[in-house]
Design goal:
Largest sheet of chain A: 5 strands, mixed
Oligomer: homodimer
Structural class of chain A: alpha+beta
Helix content of chain A: 25-40%
Distance between the termini of chain A: 37 Å
CATH class of the largest domain in chain A: Alpha Beta
Strand order of the largest sheet of chain A: 1-12-2-8-9
């Protein structure tokens, strides 16, 4: 027995035609995209969706013209050459500022995610007129999409909503799972034994984040491919939540 | 143009028979494994190898019986119920202790990686008699394996050596690239524009880490599958190093 899923794993991109607008049924658009790509969702598939299209469909957009930055945000913007309105939104969307340095705000969002600018982003929206916020409840979106697909196609899949986060000590962004449905996001090896009989006492794998990263290989920043299907990875079914991937403060060495 | 590689991506596990021992030619073993699995390496493939087999082949193993822990390591071990010999090795392999709390040492290794216990690990070795250290120079191993495959098979591939690291704020381990050859580990979008004409000024993707995570889906902790082949992801060729993924201290908000 190994990590669940030691066969071949395949990642199929799911390009979506046209723009996602507030009120759109993202589920219907993704199913149309799958049909166009001649992909039929199967039992055990994992559908990974970039958060940005979720936020757009939910209308989690703010017209930057209508944001009135505070004096602090204006000073921060001037000092570091960043958009004070984005700073203002990042603070509004945050529960707490974790670090601030050289124009970068690392915040804890209302969901509990720790990331730059509370995930507020102006790229891939509409050329700088609107900012997109994180979805209000990425787990709820994932659960609804999973239920919709079960109803329409009769298949049990898992759904992951992903975003790109930076991280301390390492360069570059990687994808993380901010919403999860239909699978356990962590695999806990503690108490199991390796082939040499050694007890694995410190090994918990963040498989939902690894799946998000795998999806990131085909879901491009510039490509119009906001989703993909991962097939062949055998996950543990069950209720799951993106919040399980957030380390509780008391176990975090970095709070 | 999107993130390079918007076609299907496939990940083929590469199970290796038997144990890897100091002095083994890991390249020969991996090529035999590929043959057994009826996989033929192709131009543009990415071969991902878990660091542990690299360390074993290089003899980066220490008999725990021969480690004499310092008074500090013994006190730390007693206090938190951890093996003082492993703590001692973690300190020896480190350049600096980044955090220490509740038995966990986060260190900066001689290579510059920030991880738990300098990557010293007792699991999947031999049931607790030896500890495995990180490879001395993961980039050099990757470069040599790449050259060996080019010579033997006439194909240009990229090689990644991966390890599982924890990270602040999030639960669970994910794979990271500690050695890289034949590809650029980061894709820098800065200065490019999204489809809406918005300039992407803060977007650098750690694709080598995302590839390592994708590999982690098939390379199991318990499975005897220390390597895999990723096909279909179009990377930027060129010299690359795992060290490029280490954030320089002056740009790191968390030093």
């Amino acid at each position: 027995m190994g990590k669940r899923g030691s066969g071949e794993v395949r990642i199929f991109p799911l390009p979506v035609d046209g723009e996602i607008r507030p009120g759109d049924s993202l589920g219907a658009k993704l199913l149309t995209a799958a049909k166009s790509a001649q992909l039929r969702l199967q039992d055990g598939d994992i559908l990974v969706v970039k958060h940005k299209v979720v936020s757009k469909a939910e209308g989690a957009l703010v017209a930057l013209d209508e944001v009135r930055p505070s004096a602090w945000s204006r000073a921060w913007g001037r000092r570091f050459g960043v958009d004070a309105r984005v700073t203002e939104l990042a603070l509004r969307e945050s529960r707490r500022v974790v670090r601030r340095k050289r124009g970068v705000l690392i915040t804890e969002t209302r969901h509990g995610f720790v990331c730059a600018n509370s995930g507020v982003d102006v790229s891939n929206v509409d050329g700088g007129r609107h900012a997109v916020l994180l979805p209000g409840d990425p787990d709820r979106f994932a659960g609804r999409l999973r239920a919709e697909i079960k109803k329409k196609l009769g298949v049990e899949i898992a759904v992951i909503v992903s975003d790109s986060f930076g991280r301390p000590w390492r360069e570059g962004l990687t994808e993380v799972a901010i919403g999860v449905a239909g699978m356990r996001p962590l695999i806990d090896y503690r108490g199991r034994h390796d082939p040499y009989g050694y007890s694995l006492h410190a090994t918990v794998d963040a498989v939902a984040d690894e799946l998000a990263c795998a999806a990131g290989l085909v879901c491009g920043k510039l490509a119009g491919t906001p989703a993909c299907i991962i097939r062949g990875f055998v996950y543990r079914r069950g209720n799951g939540s993106g919040r399980e991937l957030i380390r509780p403060a008391k176990y975090d060495l970095f709070r």
